[in-house]
Amino acid sequence: MKRLSAALLALMMLLALVPAALGEESSPFTMAGFEGSSGRVWENSLFFKRMAERTGVSFNSFQPFYDHTEYSRWKSALDPKGELPDVLFKASLSDGEARTLFDRGVLIDLKPYINEEVMPNLCALLKDQPALWTEMTLEGHVITLPVIDSLQLNDALWINIKWLEALKMEKPTTAEELTAVLRAFKTMDPNMNGRSDEIPLTFTGLWELRFLQHAFGLNMNDYYLTADAEGIVTAPITSDQNRAFLAWLHTLWDEGLIDHSGLLTPDSMRQVTDSKNVPYGIVFGPAWSNTIMPAEVSGDYKVLMPLQYNGTQTYRSLLGQLTRGCFAVTSACRDPETVLRWADDLYSRDGCFLARCGEQDKEYRLNEDGSWQWLAATENLNRDVILPATIDGGANLHGYIHPDYWLRFDDESIRSEKEQMAELAAIATEPCPQVMLTADEAQKLADRWPQIGVYAETQMMHFVTGDVPLNDETWADFCAQIQALGMDDVVALWQGALDREGGAQ
Fold first, then answer.
1. β-strands 137-138, 59-65: how paired?
2. Spatial CB neighbours of 170, under 8 Å, sequence gap ≥ 6
3. Which CATH number, 3.30.360.10, 3.30.950.10, 3.55.40.20, 3.40.190.10, labels domain 156-223+239-313?
4. Are 241 and 119 in contact (CB under 8 A)?
5. How many whole angstroms separate alpha carbon 487 and alpha carbon 493?
6. Measured between alpha carbons, how far is 106 from 82 in angstroms, rounded to an integer?
7. Which has fewest Cβ within 10 Å: 42, 305, 320, 455?
8. DSSP character for 190?
9. What gap in Å lies between CA 465 and CA 481, rounded to an integer?
10. Are 463 and 209 spatial neighbours (Cβ–Cβ below 8 Å)?
11. 440, 332 in Cβ contact below 8 A?
């Protein structure tokens, strides 16, 4: 009898292992998150079914939100003693929300699980780029998982190649050469309509115009900060280089080489609709499709690579590679390791394509040259593929957007655009790591920055337009006021956060 009981016990233990051995689903989990206005129904999504087959992990309860206000109210009301989902997927958490929910005990620290056993794909990315740890952590904790994309949108200069060819000029490589090209664009009728209607360079606001700072070796973020290779933070806004940059912009403004409507007129008021009468030689835009130009002339414009300063190139990476706040695990989750193994799959190439393209040979196919293309007709793509078979769109999805997703897409215009942006991305760097600030640090920044930011933006705009002459006296006053408003405090705040999180990995 004892031998029979022992045999039955052994058989039960063996059967308990069968689901894992067969790749069958573990006990299901629950999730909530933000889907936005797509209307996608998570319960019916092929993505979750396929992920369950790939990982053995399933979710049996979904709570997608489609209204941003409603989702914000729901997030703010989360309580560790109340009913919580196991995970927040497409979590759309701001840094402030993540901090608050973590401090409240709603969210758990994910860092103990980011190891080779639980999250090998994410670990491989972090091993290759350890600086990403700095942007993921808050006082040594990892509250949310990010999306990592080496080809995120950046504000690039798109230059009219046909105009250059008509004038027999090469792409400029320095500030001096760019000035010469802009003068030729203005005076030599490159659009060949017999009128002097060319606007050599157009932009939207001083913020966008500041991307030209690279021509003087500058790379500052929105707080006018930069960090060197040793992690030392400075504010070059008061540097001689920035003064020279502003003086150059004034020359361009004074000669009518940059759009005088750019400081005040929104893109919607400068939209070009006549492809046969294009007035702009250079336009700013995060992608060609995001410029103010008609699609018919897309082939006429190419990305202008960063200009050289003292023989070197620099350019601002607007968004970096990492965006926080995409995925979180709550304190209600009984098995964080399992859900994080599931989450880690999206940091692989196959996971990236499953989430964003669907399944190979069902929603997309690979061509002999290694490119990929949708199987559905373009007009039916959203209805037949994007909504039912992928999970992309609506809100940031955690994971790794593999470069092949962008660079291997079988559409010549899109691929060409992404290849140019990849070339720019190879040069661009973040001025400062996008550290996650504590609540106290965020409050100190909020107390200081409005006065500094408004004054700096206004005064520099006046220097550019000539409303305030740029000379030794006015520049000294500008630098003194920047310091008096507390720029040193902003530098010290950022330095402290960078020093703290830089040693978190």
1. unpaired
2. 164
3. 3.40.190.10
4. no
5. 10
6. 9
7. 455
8. T
9. 20
10. no
11. no
Dihedral angle computed from the Cα positions of residues 278, 280, 284 and 288, in that order, rounded to the nearest 10 degrees: 20
- How much is the pTM? 0.88
Distances (CA, A) of 93 to 202, 327, 332: 34, 8, 18
Tens of pLDDT along 467-495?
999 999 999 999 999 999 999 999 999 99
d(CA 93, CA 396): 10
pLDDT at 348 over 60: yes
SS3 category, 382: helix
Contact indicator for 134, 502 with CB cutoff of 8 Å:
yes
Looking at domain 24-150+321-411, what is its CATH homologous superfamily? Answer: Periplasmic binding protein-like II (3.40.190.10)
Q: CB of 407 within 8 A of CB of 415?
A: yes
Kindly provide the b/e burial profile for residues 179-209, where b requires at least 16 CB atoms within 10 angstroms of the residue's own CB: bebbebbbeebbbeeeeeebbbbbbbebeeb
Question: Token pair of 88, please?
Answer: 């927040």
Q: What are phi and psi of 413, to 5 degrees?
A: -70, -45
Cα–Cα distance between 464 and 209 in angstroms, integer? Answer: 10
Residue 368: count of CB within 10 angstroms of its CB: 5
DSSP 192: -
The type of residue at 175 is: A
**N- to C-terminal Cα separation, the chain:** 56
DSSP collapsed to 3 states, 319-377: CCCEEEEEEEEECCCCCHHHHHHHHHHHHCHHHHHHHHHCCECCCEEECCCCCEEECCC
Instruction: Report the percent of the chain where pLDDT is more than 90.
Output: 79
Structure tokens at 173: 């490589």
Q: Report d(CA 248, CA 252) in Å as an integer.
A: 6
**Tokens (6 digits) for 502:** 């830089």
The model's pLDDT over 201-222, given as tens digits with 9 standing for 90+, comes to: 999 889 999 999 999 999 999 9
Tokens of 191: 């659009």
Q: Are 346 and 47 in contact (CB under 8 A)?
A: no
Give the number of other CB atoms < 10 A from CB of residue 28: 12
C-alpha–C-alpha distance, residues 182 and 448, integer Å: 38
CA 189 to chain centre: 38
Burial class of 274 by CB neighbour count within 10 A (0 to 12, 13 to 18, 19+): exposed
